[in-house]
Design goal:
heterodimer; A: alpha+beta; four-stranded antiparallel beta sheet; B: alpha+beta; five-stranded mixed beta sheet; disordered C terminus
């Protein structure tokens, strides 16, 4: 997995529980804890960090992934403002992920392996997103999708269905503020 | 009490020391992680830069290779074009000699033949041979113009040049029911600095084109000198005009317009292309104003730099 994901996970954890929490997680996981955005690291290392966090925070692993993903999204978005400058809402941003953002990631890092995030805009304005990755990190994806709402300060409603082949289907709806 | 208090204080102090040590240890590990990450980033960046440098080097090599290939291909094409021109030139020369022989012999023959039927055949043979000879002359000129070195541009008397042209063309045109009218009324001078040979060739092509393709009627040859000193010669007929898409192909050598035109006319297809090349060699431009069913006007425009009015009348 790309080092940048480890970086934003660290930033998210530090935002949630301070730098000491990150230290504790790294120590408990027995991980190196040294991650550069230019590098690639084993997926298992992220898993070990998440398991350690789940232990320390006394939260289920999926919940940790959703929480970390959600907190990490704004950090991730701020790392590539030029890639998402055309998006002005969570749904617009999510529509760029597969066709623009991951395309650019592959140009810069041909050895990277971003997940597939196919999208389809429904007639009612909801976005149908299908996440598919050999990493099966649907929970992290859910957290990141929820984080787009925080990033634009436009709340989103999310339905999730785990499919048989390991893919996850999300339906993202913008929440219309009550007038 | 004092002892207990002292003991308490010692305990508290050692507890604080432990905390501080722990904090220092934590910060040290944090620092180590940051250093490791930085070193790894530097290694990756250096490797990336080296790869980029190597890729650039190989790209430079490939660009040089491709450029050399293109250069070779261009030279090859130029050589092929040059040898085609030389071949065409040689061929025209070689063909001209026997044709001159045929024309000469036919002339001699015409002096001794008296039978009316034979005379008609002889006339057809002479006309055909003459046509072939003229085609070769034009083909040769077309090839020569490709390597044209600017010829003499001594001032010539434009009226005299036009008189020669009229003397040559009036009768052949009349035979096709075409009446040549010359208008030089707007020329206020006699002498103009142009290459008389090339201008003469140009007018021959324009009038030959009229003779071969135009309807019976008037043919207007006009000479104009613009306010800016530019010079224009035009030949206008009374139709039948040319289709726009045919005009393009007429300017290419040895091409014809639509099939109907080809059937209707018997020209070689070199005339307008030759006129076009003549204009370009003289530093001017050649334009044809024509629409189907309308008169056609072919013009040669020479810029002021090329033409200077010398002696005013």
């Amino acid at each position: 997995m790309k080092g940048v994901i480890f970086n934003v996970v660290q930033e998210a954890v530090e935002q949630l529980g301070g730098a000491d929490l990150w230290d504790d997680i790294v120590d408990k996981a027995g991980a190196s804890g040294a991650y550069t955005g230019l590098g690639n690291y084993e997926d298992a290392e992220l898993v070990s960090l998440v398991v350690a966090a789940s232990d320390i925070l006394d939260k289920a692993v999926p919940d940790v992934l959703v929480l970390v993903g959600r907190t990490a999204l704004p950090h991730l978005a701020n790392k590539a403002p030029e890639l998402i400058k055309d998006a002005n809402s969570p749904i617009e941003l999510l529509m760029l992920v597969n066709d623009v953002i991951h395309v650019e990631v592959l140009k810069l890092y041909p050895d990277s392996d971003p997940p597939e995030l196919r999208h389809k805009l429904r007639d009612d304005g909801a976005l149908l997103l299908t996440y598919k990755s050999k990493r099966n990190m649907g929970d992290l994806a859910e957290g990141l999708i929820r984080g787009t709402g925080d990033f634009y300060d436009q709340p989103v409603e999310l339905d999730r269905e785990d499919l048989d082949d390991g893919a996850v289907q999300f339906v993202v709806k913008a929440v219309v503020p009550a007038s | 009490m004092t002892q207990i208090g002292e003991s308490d204080s010692t305990l508290a102090s050692s507890g604080e020391t432990l905390d501080v040590d722990k904090e220092i240890g934590r910060l040290r590990r944090r620092l180590d992680r940051e250093r490791l990450a930085r070193e790894e980033a530097e290694t990756i960046a250096e490797r990336g830069l080296r790869d980029l440098y190597l890729a650039n080097q190989s790209l430079d090599g490939r660009v040089a290779e491709r450029t050399a290939e293109l250069h070779d291909a261009k030279n090859e094409v130029e050589r092929a074009l040059a040898s085609t021109s030389v071949f065409l030139g040689n061929l025209s020369h070689d063909l001209r000699t026997p044709i001159n022989g045929i024309v000469g012999m036919l002339e001699l023959l015409s002096e001794s033949v008296t039978d009316a039927q034979h005379l008609t055949w002889l006339q057809t043979a002479t006309e055909s041979a003459e046509r072939l000879r003229r085609l070769l002359v034009r083909l040769l000129l077309y090839v020569d113009l490709e390597r044209w070195v600017e010829g003499s541009t001594d001032p010539i008397d434009i009226h005299e040049l036009l008189d020669h042209v009229v003397a040559h063309w009036r009768k052949p045109l009349l035979q096709r029911g075409q009446v040549l009218i010359v208008d030089t009324s707007s020329i206020a001078c006699h002498r103009i600095r142009v290459d008389s040979g090339l201008v003469r060739h140009f007018l021959d092509e324009a009038l030959s084109n009229v003779q071969e393709h135009a309807n019976a009627g008037s043919v207007r040859l006009e000479a104009l000198v613009g306010d800016d000193g530019s010079f224009e010669l035009s030949v206008a007929d009374t139709g039948p005009g040319i289709e726009a898409q045919d005009l393009k192909t007429f300017l290419q050598p040895l091409r014809h317009g639509d099939e109907e035109t080809t059937r209707r006319a018997t020209g070689s297809g070199i005339g307008l292309a030759l006129a076009n090349r003549l204009a370009s060699v003289m530093g001017g431009s050649f334009t044809i104003d024509s629409h189907p069913g309308q008169p056609t006007k072919a013009s040669l425009q020479l810029p002021a730099a090329y033409v200077s009015q010398l002696t005013m009348t």
